[in-house]
Amino acid sequence: MIEQYVTTIALSVICLVTIGVLTLGAVVYRKVKPIYEARFSVEQRNRIGQLAQDAYAWVERNYAGAGATKFHEAVKYLTVKAGQLGIVIKSEEVEAAIQKAWEEFNPNKIKSA
Fold first, then answer.
1. Nearest to 71, CA basis, from 58, 59, 81
2. SS3 of residue 101 by DSSP
3. CA triplet 43, 75, 48: central angle to 5 degrees?
4. N or C terminus: which one in the chain shows less Cβ crowding within 10 Å?
């Protein structure tokens, strides 16, 4: 008889502890997830920036003086390389990254507003 009560109490305590741990885990997950996602996006941005510089350097060497073709080839290069790394990137972000790489390579050609 007493064993039944002890078993019931022990199971109740285990259930309460489990519920508490799961609740605490959910709260921590909600707090940590945005931090993780922000860090991941910063790492992706850094990677995209590096790839854009690589793309710009590549087209400068292979398409010197080609104008718009050079830009389109850099966009294509960056899109392919990002895809190979599993990075999903919007076309506006690709163009912005290439533009930024161009500005870093040509600081004296930046037009002031």
1. 59
2. helix
3. 5
4. C
> Token pair of 109, please?
């050609």
Q: Which residues touch 18 (CB under 8 Å, ≥6 apart)?
A: none
Non-local CB neighbours of 11 within 8 Å, separated by 6+ positions: none
Give the predicted TM-score (pTM) of the model.
0.61
DSSP for residue 106: -
Q: What single letter denotes the amino acid at residue 25?
A: G
Contacts of 64 (CB under 8 A, 6+ apart): 70
Q: Could you tell me which residues come within 8 angstroms of residue 105 by beta carbon, excluding any fewer than 6 positions away?
A: 53, 56, 57, 60
pLDDT < 50 regions, the chain: 113
pLDDT at 13: 92
Q: What is the pLDDT of residue 108?
A: 75
